[in-house]
Amino acid sequence: MTARPPLKLFGWQGIELQVPVAWELQAHGGDYKAGYAALDDGIDVRLQVRWSDLKRGALKAGSTIEEYRRKLERAYKGNLTFDTRSADFLPRRLRQDKDAVAFSWKAGRAGFGLAWHCHTCRRAVLAEILFGTGETDCQSGDWRSQEADTALSQRILKSLACHREDGQRLWAVYGFAFLAPDTYNLERPELVPGRLQFLLRESRRSWLRVERWALASQWTRKAPLDQWPAEVLKLMRVTPVGPLEQTETDVRGNPGCRFTRRALRRGLRRQERVDGLVWIAHEEDKVFAVVAGGGREDLPERVAATVVCG
Question: In 10 A of CB 263, how many CB atoms?
Answer without folding.
Answer: 21
